[in-house]
Structures are given as C-alpha cells and as structure tokens.
TrEMBL record:
The lineage of its organism: Bacteria, Bacillati, Bacillota, Bacilli, Lactobacillales. It comes from Lacticaseibacillus chiayiensis. Signal peptide: none annotated. InterPro entries: AAA+_ATPase, ABC_transporter-like_ATP-bd, ABC_transporter-like_CS, P-loop_NTPase. PROSITE patterns: ABC_TRANSPORTER_1, ABC_TRANSPORTER_2. One of its GO terms (molecular function) is ATP hydrolysis activity. This is ABC transporter ATP-binding protein. The keyword 4Fe-4S does not apply.
Length: 245
C-alpha cells in the first residue's frame, strides 16, 4: 500500500483577475512533515495557502488535500487554520473564542476543557482567557489565532505567518510543540514565514520569489546544493539565478 500525501499540489497557477501571482507550483507534504513556505512580502505565500485551503479555485493545475480536490467543505474539519489576518470575535473572551471554534471543529463536550487548556498553554494565554479579545494586544491576538488552529488536534495544520509578533522565548516553545506534533503525532504542517530562522526549523522548504518556487528541499540539502551554511545565502543565490534567467 502506498501512503497518500496529505497535500499534493501539481502544476498550480493562481492569480487575481488578470494578474498571475503563482505559476508552476508543485509540492508534496506527507504525514509528520513540516513544510515552510519562505519568501518576501508579496511573493505569493498567502495566495498559495488560500488555494490549498480551498478559498480560491486553482486557475490551472490541481490541489489535493487528503486525496480530495479542493475546495471541499468537509476537509475543513481536518485542517487547523491560522490566517494571516486574525478573524476573532472581539467582544467575546479568549476562552469563548476558543470554545466557539473548537465546537465548529467538532471538539466534544468531554474533551473541551482539556483541549482548551492545552491550546492556551502552548501560546501562554492562560491568564488572559477571561478577558474580552478587544483588550488583547496584536501579539495576543496572533497567539489566540494559533491556539484556535491547534485546538482540535487536526491532522493538518496550515499556519500563515505564525511567528509574527511572538517573542523569542515563546517562539521557541511554539516550535517545540510544532516539532512534537509533527514528529511524534504525525501531524502535517505547512507554514509561511519571511524569517530565515524559522526556515531552519522546518523539514522541507519551498522558497518562493515572484510567484515561483526558486528552491525546494531540506535545509541541509539546500545548503549543500548552494555550498553555503545559511538559508539566507541560499535564498539570495537562488534569487540571483532567477534574475539571470
Ligand atoms: N485580493 C487580491 N487581489 C489582487 N491582488 C492580490 C490580492 N491578494 C494578494 N494580491 C497580490 O498577489 C501577490 C501575492 O500576495 P500574497 O499571496 O499575499 O503574498 P505573501 O503572502 O507572500 O506576502 C501580491 O502582488 C499581492 O499584491
Ligand atoms: Mg502573506
């Protein structure tokens, strides 16, 4: 029996109106892998995430999630999603937001307290759970959005810029939890970042620049291929190659 990838993108082209934003994107994400989409602002990372989530129909090519073509509403129950822009109920408390989204993701009454405690713990929000979200700082809202993505322990996590506005100590803790989820529980994780340090934590990288993948592979492979010891140098070298073409 062959093991199906969790996410399979083939020959994807995507855009808005006349504008082409992504071309020739191919990627495979397996169970237990962490994939980081890395690239500067405007590269097309969020557009790719939205397409994998089924929020935009592929203009060309194919996107399969758990072997189903997207969009597929039923898939959403199996995906923990953190959007780049927080979508929270400002007048509700952190705990109420978590409970609301947990119910939507099918978390049962018996597990609710345990899951809520777990998710709030990962992002250090325990002490703020009873406050309305309108009193939260920007960083606290990001953390709550991440907790919401984690709350139902989904087999696929899709996180758009999860480390923005997170202090280094908490960032470390979040990475440890993402590693544990992927490597111990088999969770598949896609995240976007423009922070090179995040790239080092991922199992596979896809570097995106001007809507195309300029380099793809494990951090070790990429550094060897480009004969350098930093991911940032790989990105710059791959970018120069793209410009030369
Ligand atoms: N709703 C939209 N309508 C038109 N263009 C958009 C829209 N959203 C993003 N874009 C454009 O698509 C490109 C890629 O954007 P995006 O996917 O948000 O990049 P990233 O997440 O890497 O910063 C940019 O040029 C951006 O201006
Ligand atoms: Mg983005």
């Amino acid at each position: 029996m062959t093991i199906q990838p969790v996410v399979q993108v083939t020959g994807l082209q995507q855009g808005y109106g006349q504008k082409i934003v992504l071309s020739d994107i191919d990627l495979t994400l397996k169970r237990g892998q962490i994939l980081a989409l890395i690239g500067p602002s405007g590269a097309g990372k969020t557009t790719l995430i939205r397409t994998i989530m089924g929020m935009m129909r592929p203009r060309a090519g194919q996107v399969l999630v758990f072997n189903q073509a997207v969009p597929d509403r039923l898939l959403l129950a199996r995906i923990g999603f953190m959007a780049q822009t927080d979508a929270l109920y400002e007048s509700l408390t952190g705990a109420e937001n978590l409970t609301f989204f947990a119910k939507m993701q099918g978390v049962g009454h018996e597990e609710m307290t345990k899951q809520l405690t777990y998710a709030a713990n990962v992002v250090n929000l325990q002490s703020a759970l009873d406050q309305p979200v309108k009193n939260y700082s920007g960083g606290m809202k990001r953390r709550l959005s991440l907790a919401i993505a984690l709350i139902s322990k989904p087999p696929l996590l899709i996180l758009d810029e999860p480390t923005i506005g997170i202090d280094p100590e908490l960032r470390r803790k979040i990475w440890e939890e993402l590693h544990r989820l992927a490597h111990d529980q088999g969770t598949a994780i896609i995240l976007t970042t423009h922070v090179m340090a995040d790239a080092e934590e991922a199992d596979i990288l896809m570097m995106i620049r001007n809507g195309t993948a300029i380099a793809q592979g494990t951090p070790t492979q990429l550094k060897a291929d480009y004969q350098t010891n930093s991911i940032e140098a790989v990105f710059l070298a791959a970018g120069r190659q793209q410009d030369a073409h």
